[in-house]
Design goal:
- By secondary structure, the chain is an alpha+beta fold.
- The protein has a single domain, classed as RutC-like (60s Ribosomal Protein L30, Chain: A).
- It is built from 3 helices and 7 strands, in the order H-E-E-E-E-H-E-H-E-E.
- A 5-stranded mixed beta sheet has the order 1-2-7-5-6, with helices on one face. The chain has a two-stranded antiparallel ribbon with strand order 3-4.
- Helix 2 packs across helix 3.
- The longest helix is centred in the middle third of the chain and has 23 residues.
- The two termini are about 20 Å apart.
Length: about 150
Amino acid sequence: MSPEEKIKELGIELPVTPKPLGSYIPCTRTGNLLFLSGILPFRDGLITRTGRVGENITLNEARDDARTAAINALSVLKAYAGSLDKLTRCIKITGYVASSPGFTEQPKVLNAASDLLFEIFGEAGRHVRAAVGVNVLPLNASVEIEFIFEVSEE
């Protein structure tokens, strides 16, 4: 099953591609690699929730935010590549989690994004990853994720 078909089967509707919040572009290509800028968990143009995980955001809420960020990334990738079926694999994701001082479960937060990519792309969705705890993120978001994907040559 292709990624486009899998998304339909999962009932995922890709949102309108989020606009950059500053002086950067959301995606760039070098060779057959697509590099995405940090993606935030926007829904309907708004950050899903604000604050820090382990303080006023639960682990499950943060996992939902990581999944939302991954869906937003797919929207950017589709807009840039024309179809998710042109993506040959996910290479790496780097996730930043706004964390309270004692919160150490950043990998569990990022698993929600990683698991979604595996569900859509199968083995091609497996990737290397870093999960980093930070004090604060843009717009006081709970997570921000960068992605690197390989795209087929055109």
